[in-house]
Design goal:
heterodimer; A: alpha/beta; Beta Polymerase, domain 2; 2 domains; 8 helices; 7 strands; 15% strand; B: mainly alpha; Cytochrome-c3 Hydrogenase, chain B; three-stranded antiparallel beta sheet; 16 helices; 48% helix
C-alpha cells in the first residue's frame, strides 16, 4: 500500500479495487476536507473521499488509539456499525475480482456525529493468517454485537471482547459464511435462475435504453385526477403484457414511449 | 410490635434467630427464559433473564431466528434483484428499506434521479413511516394491556397501506424503486397519454383524506393513551436511556430523539429532497418509554405534514433516468444512510465494477437499537421488560437481516 501523508489527497493505491484517487470527481470538497482532518487525527496511512464516503485507513497496531482519537477529537460519538470486507482472489460466490488484490480482511467501522452531518469510515487491514484485532467494546457499547457478528461471519478474533460467542448461527455451525470462499450451497446445487436472462442481453441489446418512465404533468393530475387521462384500462394492460412478453425485443417500452410522444404532440 | 423481647425467653430467642436467618439467606438467582415465541417480541426473540426476586440482574438476548443471510445472498444477485430482498428486512416499512440502497447504487453510477421520481419516493417513504409508526402506536398499548387503541390506529393504517398499494401494487413489499427512478405505473401500463403513467387515479384526493384521518387518530391517541393513568404509570420514568449511552450503542431514530438528541438524517443527508418541505425534528427530554411513545406520535403528525406539502407540489418530468440495460456499477465503495422509521438504515456498498455487489453491508436500525437491551434492562423489574421491548419498536427481520 502506498502511504500518503495525511495532508495530501490519497493517490491511487493500485491493489485495492475499491479505491481510486482521492481527488476524483465524486468526492466533493467537503468530504475531502473531512477525510483529511480525520486522517490527521487518526494518524492514518491514507485517506479517500470518493462517492461521498470519507474513509481513512489506519494500521492495525494503532486501531484503538486511532478510533479513540477520532471519537474524542472530531466529536464522532455515534457508533454506526462495524463490519468487514473479505478481499479474496478466490471466490465461491459471485464474480471474482477483476484485478488481483492482496489477500486480507478489511475491518471497517463507521462513526458519525449527532450534531453535524460528519460521518467517517475508519478501516484497517488484517492478514488472513492472523486475523486478530483489539475490541472496541470499552469505547462503544454498540461494538459488542457488531464484533460478534464479524467474528462469526468472517472468523476475525476480537481480543478482549467479553463474550465472542455466536450471535446468529448455532454453536455447532462450522465455517465463516461471509468469507468469499464459503459456498452458498443452494446455489451450488442449482445456479441462481435469475442470472440467465441478464447474461444473454448484452450481445443482442442496445446497451442504452430510453427512459422507461414517461413525463407526468402534476398540475393536470392534481386538478383533474387521473381517471380522465386514462384512455382505457384494457389498452394499458395490453401494453404491459406486450412489453413483458418480449424481453428480447428492442426495448418495447422505450419505443412505445416514443410513439406516445408523437401522439401527444 | 414495639414490645421488646426478653432475651431469656426461649421462644423469643428462637424468633430472633429465625429473623436473622431469613435476612442473611441468599436466595439463588433464577433464570427465566422468555420467548422465542412471545407476542410482545415482534417476531422471534428469546431473552434469557437472570432474576433476583423480581429484579433483573442480567439479560442475554438470543437472536438469529430470523437470520436469512441477505448480505451473502446479495453477493450472488444482480443489483436490480436485490431490491426484492431488502423489502423484507424491515417488513413493516418495506418501501423505506429500498431508498438507501437505490441511492448508494445511483451514487456509484453517478445517476441523476429525476425530481418527480424523488418526490414520489419521498411521499411513499413518509407513508411507510406513518404506517410503521401506527403499528407501534397501536401495538404498544396492547402489550401494556390496552386493547382499544389497536383498533383505532390499525383502521387508519389501512388507509395508508391502501395508498401504498394503489401506487406500487404491494402493501408491504412494494419493490417499487428502480435504479435511476421508480417503476412506472402500477396497473397503468403504457398508455397513450404520458400524464396517466405514474400515480393512480384519485391518489392525491385519497392521500389528503388519509392524512386527515391519520392526524385525527393521533389526536385520539393523545387522550386515549398518553392521558391514560395506567399507561403513564407503566412508562413514565421506566428504562430511561441517556443520550451518550444511546449514541455509543448506535441507538438511532425516534429512540435517540426521545433521549433529547435532535438527530434526524432527513435534515442531515440529501438522499431525498426533504429540504423543500417544512417539518420539525421531534425530541423529548427524559428518554423513557413514555417519551419514546410521544416522539413517534408527534412524528406521524410531522410526516403527514410533509406528505400534505409534497403532494401539492410534485414536479413534472420523467420517472426514470437514462440507465444502461445491464446495470454495472463502477468500482468504488460508498455508504448511504437514511432516516427510516426505525432509525438509521444504511448500506455500505463495495463494487468491483460488475453487475453483482462485491460486498453489501446492511446497517439496520433495529439491530443497534436492540443491542442496548442488556444495559437498559439491568436493575429493572420483570414487567418493565415488556414496557422497554415494546417502546424500542424493533422488528426482528430488521435485527437479523
Amino acid at each position: 500500500m502506498t502511504t500518503n501523508s495525511p495532508d495530501e489527497p490519497a493517490v491511487e493505491t493500485g491493489e485495492a479495487p475499491a479505491e481510486s484517487a482521492g481527488e476524483e470527481p465524486a468526492g466533493d470538497s467537503g468530504t475531502a476536507d473531512l477525510a483529511a482532518r480525520i486522517a490527521e487525527l487518526a494518524g492514518a496511512e491514507s485517506w479517500s473521499a470518493d462517492f461521498g464516503n470519507a474513509k481513512v485507513r489506519v494500521d492495525r497496531a494503532r486501531w484503538i488509539e486511532a478510533v479513540q482519537a477520532v471519537r474524542d477529537g472530531a466529536d464522532l460519538e455515534f457508533f454506526s456499525f462495524l463490519s468487514a470486507v473479505d478481499w479474496s482472489n478466490e471466490v465461491a460466490v459471485g464474480d471474482p475480482l477483476e484485478e488481483a488484490v492482496e489477500e486480507r480482511y478489511e475491518v471497517i467501522v463507521r462513526l458519525s456525529s449527532t450534531r453535524t452531518n460528519d460521518s467517517v469510515t475508519i478501516s484497517t487491514d488484517l492478514p488472513k493468517d492472523d486475523a486478530r484485532l483489539p475490541t472496541l467494546v470499552g469505547m462503544f457499547g454498540g461494538a459488542n454485537w457488531h464484533e460478534r457478528e464479524a467474528a462469526e461471519m468472517f472468523g476475525i478474533e476480537f481480543e478482549g471482547h467479553p463474550n465472542l460467542s455466536k450471535l446468529y448461527l448455532t454453536d455447532e455451525f462450522e465455517g465463516y459464511p461471509l468469507r468469499k470462499t464459503f459456498p452458498l450451497l443452494s446455489r451450488e446445487i442449482k445456479p441462481w435462475p435469475g442470472m440467465v436472462d441478464v447474461e444473454d442481453m448484452p450481445s443482442t441489446e442496445n446497451p442504452e435504453v430510453e427512459p422507461e418512465g414517461v413525463a407526468g404533468e402534476a398540475a393536470a393530475v392534481r386538478e383533474e385526477g387521473v381517471a380522465e387521462q386514462l384512455p382505457s384500462n384494457a389498452e394499458g394492460v395490453a401494453g404491459v403484457a406486450q412489453g413483458q412478453a418480449m424481453p428480447q425485443g428492442d426495448s418495447p417500452q422505450g419505443d412505445e414511449t416514443a410513439e406516445d410522444g408523437d401522439d401527444e404532440s | 410490635m414495639s414490645q421488646t423481647l426478653d432475651p431469656l425467653d426461649p421462644l423469643a430467642a428462637a424468633h430472633v434467630s429465625e429473623v436473622a436467618v431469613s435476612v442473611e439467606l441468599q436466595t439463588p438467582g433464577m433464570t427465566l427464559n422468555i420467548g422465542p415465541q412471545h407476542p410482545s417480541t415482534h417476531g422471534v426473540l428469546r431473552l434469557v433473564a437472570e432474576l433476583d426476586g423480581e429484579r433483573i440482574t442480567n439479560v442475554e438476548p438470543v437472536i438469529g431466528y430470523m437470520h436469512r443471510g441477505y448480505e451473502k445472498l446479495s453477493e450472488v444477485r444482480t443489483y436490480p434483484q436485490i431490491t426484492a430482498l431488502v423489502n423484507r428486512i424491515d417488513w413493516v416499512s418495506g418501501f423505506a428499506n429500498e431508498i438507501p440502497l437505490m441511492t448508494a447504487i445511483e451514487r456509484l453510477m453517478e445517476i441523476e434521479v429525476p425530481e418527480r421520481a424523488l418526490s414520489i419516493r419521498l411521499i411513499l417513504t413518509e407513508l411507510a413511516r406513518i404506517a410503521s409508526h401506527l403499528v407501534f402506536l397501536s401495538s404498544y398499548p396492547l402489550e401494556l394491556g390496552a386493547a382499544t387503541p389497536l383498533m383505532h390506529a390499525l383502521r387508519e393504517r389501512e388507509h395508508v397501506l391502501e395508498l401504498i398499494e394503489a401506487v406500487t401494487g404491494g402493501r408491504f413489499h412494494p419493490n417499487f424503486n428502480r435504479i435511476g427512478g421508480v417503476k412506472p405505473a402500477a396497473g397503468g401500463g403504457t398508455t397513450q397519454k404520458k400524464v396517466a403513467q405514474d400515480l393512480p387515479q384519485g391518489f392525491l384526493e385519497g392521500t389528503r383524506a388519509a392524512m386527515d384521518k391519520v392526524v385525527a387518530v393521533c389526536d385520539d391517541m393523545d387522550t386515549l393513551v398518553l392521558g391514560n393513568e395506567i399507561f403513564m404509570a407503566r412508562t413514565k420514568g421506566v428504562a430511561p436511556i441517556p443520550a451518550d449511552k444511546a449514541a455509543a450503542y448506535g441507538v438511532s431514530g425516534p429512540n435517540l430523539r426521545a433521549s433529547g438528541v435532535p438527530f434526524d438524517l432527513r435534515k442531515h443527508e440529501d438522499y431525498l429532497p426533504y429540504h423543500k418541505y417544512e417539518f420539525d425534528v421531534v425530541t423529548a427530554e427524559n428518554g423513557d418509554c413514555f417519551d419514546r411513545y410521544q416522539v413517534r406520535l408527534e412524528e406521524i403528525r410531522q410526516s403527514a405534514r410533509i406528505v400534505t406539502q409534497a403532494i401539492e407540489a410534485i414536479p413534472t418530468g420523467p420517472l426514470q433516468a437514462k440507465v444502461p440495460r445491464v446495470i454495472k456499477v463502477p468500482r468504488g465503495e460508498t455508504y448511504v444512510r437514511a432516516e427510516n422509521p426505525k432509525g438509521e438504515m444504511g448500506y455500505y456498498l463495495v463494487s468491483d465494477g460488475g453487475r453483482i455487489p462485491y460486498r453489501l453491508k446492511i446497517r439496520s436500525a433495529s439491530f443497534s437499537n436492540l443491542s442496548i437491551l442488556p444495559w437498559a434492562l439491568k436493575g429493572l423489574i420483570v414487567p418493565d421488560i415488556i414496557a422497554l421491548l415494546g417502546s424500542l419498536d424493533f422488528v426482528l427481520g430488521d435485527v437479523d437481516r
